Amino acid sequence: MTDAYVETTILTDILLKPSTGKQQRAKAALARYENTLLPVYSIKEWKAGPLGKFAYVHNKLVQTKSLADTLKAVSALARGSYLQATSIEALAAAGERSKRQPRVFVGLGDSDKENADSYRLALESLIIRSWRRRRKITTRVVDELACYVEVSPRIGKDGLLDLKPQQCDRDQECCLAPKLRSEPEMLEALRNSIPENSGKAEHQRRRRALKQLIKHPRERVGSEVCRDLGDAIFAFFCPKNAVVLTTNLRDHEPLARSIGKEAEGP
Amino acid sequence: MSDTGTGVPPGGLRESPRLPDETVTSVGNPFESTPLPARAITFEVQGALALAPVINIERLYEAVPGTSSQMVRALEVLKHVIELLGEAKKSDNPIEADTLIQSANLALPKLFSYRSIGDGFGIVINSLHYAFTNLRGMPLTEEQLNVIWRVLRELRERPVLSVEQAVQCAEELEERGLEVDPPDLGDLLDEFSIGDK
Questions:
Q1: pTM score of the predicted model
Q2: Model ipTM value
Q3: Domain residue ranges of chain B, discontinuous segments joined by +
């Protein structure tokens, strides 16, 4: 295959994991293909997911003015944090130490408050830079979404980052709906590729969304259905001469294979 | 980091730079700074501002003995750091140049303490801090030294720059291969699984 249809995880690794092996691998993967195609659906998912998380941490830093307290809050929210030590907890512990012991953290300044400010400014800078670059990492941006407006992140007078809107226009029908409805066999194959008894809530939501499209094709397709389709959108819209390029092969491979397409990792 | 050989007295960077009643400038000593000379308002021809009087930044924030203005102190430290980097640029001795750059790096925490000047100012200083951190002691290339020197000169000319302008400075640093983000941000995102599908 000469083309790559770039999924959200690759976009995230390139834009939000600076100076890491993941970023290097994702960049090297893009270089393997003649054409790299970034669907706007990737941008939408990236803004609503990973970029939104960074904005959340930024805003928590504004609110708490403490790196240690922010990391503890993030740790408390992170799945499974009550059962197992995560590296977030380790970071939180490091932040705690930085309250007492200067120079433990790499952030600028000696105090927890200064470290918080250093990370807040770093996140602000990274969020803005990554937003500017989002359409520049591939050779083309494809499959524009008429029902989704890409509004730049804004910093309010209160210092908080505002990423709204992160979803499609609720008043409009999903602009992808006509194309999806025109291929009911493909929708059926995609649905059948998702295990009926899967314990993942994401899978169950996707099965429901596909079922709605198959059984009730005349029903309005809203922003929730569009969001729940998630990974199925990539398999469906990936051109025939392209592969879905993703770090999440576990979910994308069965979907792509079910309709005669391929998914590849970086 | 050791300050051996940098001419930096222990703990000295935490002190405020001296103010204009002191007259000695030494590139090797970041505690002493040149008083800001009183200069006349100059007229420069610059685009839409043609013929408008351009007030030199040193005149605009002229240091008065005993003043405690963050801006004045920030400009003094910036001036010193720019001088250090300027000397490093001129030096044909790589050890001497790197030592001067290390001294400039040591002044970043002091400059960061003046971040109430604005988030733009904070972002530029912060970006430089992470750039040095990510280099892990490796010396700067000539191109990297030039861009840092230029960015700091611009910052001294326009310390109250916008966040957008500061982000542009960070991008210029990145274009020269400097990594301006905290090295652990990627891990933070990996572990932060709340809200995942």
A1: 0.79
A2: 0.80
A3: 67-182
